[in-house]
Amino acid sequence: MNEVSKLTVAEYIERWLKAYKFYSLKPASYDRLESVFNNYVKDTIGYYQMGNITSNDIQKLINKMSKSLSYSSVKKIIELLRPCFKHAVLVGVIHKNPCDAVILPRQNSMAVKTKKIDILTDKEVSVIKDITNDVICKKSRKHKHAPVFVLILNTGLRCEEVLALEFSDIDFDKKVLHVSKSVSIIKNRDENDVKIKLK
């Protein structure tokens, strides 16, 4: 067994992400991939050594995760592991890709995760509009963003779409609002912080 194959799966994936994926993916895509690793791989099969991990180990992880995660979330785990192990084969760290024998459970047999959406009642919408209109009329600087709430209520725009709006997106003559971009929050890895990026 060579020295690199003695690395844990977590150590190898971290190195692979930083060396090969960081410069080839968009920041938001890289953040998503890193999130999959941190949430589902690092503290599960991450403790295995690269030279000892088997298809069975990965299949057990996939089967376990399929009981609580959506199909797309489980698929993302494989989409992280398969190319990483493929790279390990190409550079001679391991002899075969353990993901090649792994099978995704049928989509209709997996847990269906539905998000509960809380919808404001007509009365609640009316109260918010009354309050914001009152604030707008008083021209209170303390609540200068009140019109934004009215915009969201009347259009159904998502917060990230509203945050990306610029004056050039508004045609005041035709009273038309053009929505063509949104804001995403990504890690600013140079400063260990986050930054906002338009997409």
Strand order in the sheet with the most strands: 1-2
Q: Which band does the percent of strand residues land in?
A: 5-15%
Name the helix and strand elements from N-terminus to C-terminus, one letter apiece: HHHHHHHEEEE
- Stretches with pLDDT under 50, minimum 5 residues: 194-199
Number of strands: 4
The proportion of residues forming helix, as a percent range, comes to: 40-55%
From the N-terminal CA to the C-terminal CA, the straight-line distance is 45 Å
Largest sheet: 2 strands, antiparallel
Rg from alpha-carbon coordinates:
24 Å
Description:
- The chain is mainly alpha-helical.
- 46% of the residues lie in helices and 8% in strands.
- It has helices at residues 9-21, 27-41, 55-65, 71-90, 122-138, 146-155, 159-163, and strands at residues 170-171, 176-177, 183-188, 193-198.
- Strand 3 (183-188) and strand 4 (193-198) form a beta hairpin.
- The longest helix is centred in the middle third of the chain and has 20 residues, at 71-90.
- The two termini are 45 Å apart.
Summary of the model, kept short:
The chain is mostly helical. The protein contains seven helices and four strands, in the order H-H-H-H-H-H-H-E-E-E-E. It has helices spanning about 10-20, 25-40, 55-65, 70-90, 120-140, 145-155, 160-165, and strands at about 170, 175, 185-190, 195-199.
Features:
two-stranded antiparallel sheet, disordered C terminus, two-stranded antiparallel ribbon, 199 residues, mainly alpha
Write the layout of secondary structure elements.
Blueprint: H1 9-21, H2 27-41, H3 55-65, H4 71-90, H5 122-138, H6 146-155, H7 159-163, E1 170-171, E2 176-177, E3 183-188, E4 193-198
Antiparallel strand pairs: 1-2, 3-4
Helix pairs in contact: 1-2, 2-4, 5-6
